[in-house]
Write a structure and sequence with these properties.
heterodimer, A: mainly alpha, extended, B: 268 residues, alpha+beta, Alpha-Beta Plaits, 6-stranded antiparallel β-sheet, 4-stranded antiparallel β-sheet, 25% strand, elongated
Chain lengths: 102, 268
């Protein structure tokens, strides 16, 4: 399959990158943009819409678990699989709804 | 009054001062400020950030920011992308804002060098894998023995007991999805990683009613390997119950965030 750009579906991909990422300066000559990160969050929340939570949705802890797995994989290259018990424990709080998954 | 600041889109390798035309945010003239082998792609602006409560305005700015990076890449080659609203200003009237940018380019030269080596010849791609919960739940309900038993047991129970059975069944389905999702994540992550020089695991997002985002990755991919990645993703996309969103090429926004070491052979 081929990658796409410039469609409505990729606007979120673009916003995620331009607003949250890119090279950041720590020089004291940079203008402080206190309002912008907040605006970014608000904008993206609006873009994501307020759909009803899926019954079997992804929730925060599960999300953290995924990231933990990936980090773990980097650290221990030899270990192809994270121990299942650990993942299950991290994913346990399945009834929590997520308001900020962005 | 002369503008006291410069909005910075990105940094490219190059020693020439060139103009890219009035393609900047709010139609500003975009030009390069070279110093020490690198040049900043900028426009001249007042010393205040671009802010707006209007979504459409911000979207337009963000698209323009990206558009300038696209043009800069055509004209100058690989560009290190800056975050939106990165503005350098001069606090001393005697020092021109261009000079402030030059000093910054000079001061961060080694960092640019390291980042440039890392991203040269590579682009960023967004890869998201979704699964269809309805399909997965059905599959689990049919295949998992414990869940099947609960479902079958429900039929002969009183309404109160049936309710408890139903709750128990739902919990079992959830647990099974979690277990499977962990397996899928590891499998897809491993397969996708094989085509990338570097990978960042992003937070998953709420998708829509029919699909759940399982994997959200930013991938740094060498240009000659993009078709391989595409083929790999095609296979995942063709697996029943899964779909893939593949976006890009983007400037390597996710791989310039921190000072970085060049990609090693091991990481490849």
């Amino acid at each position: 399959m081929n990658p796409t750009r410039d469609t409505h579906a990729t606007l979120v991909d673009l916003l995620d990158r331009v607003l949250d990422k890119g090279l950041v300066l720590d020089a004291d000559l940079i203008i402080h943009v206190a309002g912008i990160p907040l605006l970014g969050v608000k904008l993206r929340a609006a873009l994501a819409g307020m759909e009803t939570m899926l019954k079997y949705g992804i929730w925060q802890d599960w999300d953290e678990a995924q990231r933990a797995i990936a980090t773990e994989e980097y650290r221990q290259k030899k270990m192809a699989m994270a121990p299942e018990g650990e993942v299950a424990a991290l994913c346990h709080k399945s009834d929590r709804t997520v308001t900020t998954v962005l | 009054m002369e503008n006291r600041a410069r909005y910075i889109y990105g940094v490219a390798a190059g020693v020439k001062a060139v103009s890219l035309g009035p393609i900047g945010i709010e139609g500003n003239e975009v030009y390069t400020i070279p110093c020490g082998g690198f040049c900043a792609v900028v426009h001249s602006c007042p010393a205040e950030p671009y802010q707006s409560g209007d979504e459409e305005t911000v979207k337009k700015w963000v698209k323009t920011h990206q558009g300038v990076l696209d043009e800069a890449e055509k004209a100058l080659g690989t560009v290190i992308p800056m975050s939106f609203d990165t503005i350098l200003h001069s606090r001393d009237d005697a020092v021109s804002p261009d000079r402030v940018v030059e000093d910054w380019l000079k001061g961060d030269h080694d960092r640019f060098q390291a980042v440039m080596e890392r991203i040269n010849g590579r682009d960023e791609y967004g890869v998201q894998v979704f699964y269809a919960p309805a399909l997965v739940v059905k599959q689990i309900s049919d295949e998992n023995q414990e869940i099947r038993k609960l479902r079958e047991g429900m039929a002969s129970k009183s309404p109160g007991m049936a309710y408890l059975y139903k709750q128990k069944m739902e919990r079992a389905v959830k647990a099974e999805i979690e277990r499977l999702a962990g397996d899928w994540f590891r499998d897809f992550h491993r397969r996708i990683k094989g085509h990338c020089d570097d990978i960042v695991v992003e937070k998953t997002k709420k998708a829509d009613r029919d699909r759940v985002m399982l994997v959200n990755l930013s991938c740094l991919v060498a240009r000659e390997k993009v078709s391989n990645l595409g083929e790999g993703l095609e296979k995942i996309n063709n697996t029943e119950g899964f779909s893939v969103h593949f976006s890009g090429p983007w400037p390597p926004y996710s791989f310039v965030v921190k000072p970085v070491a060049p990609i090693t052979e091991e990481a490849k």
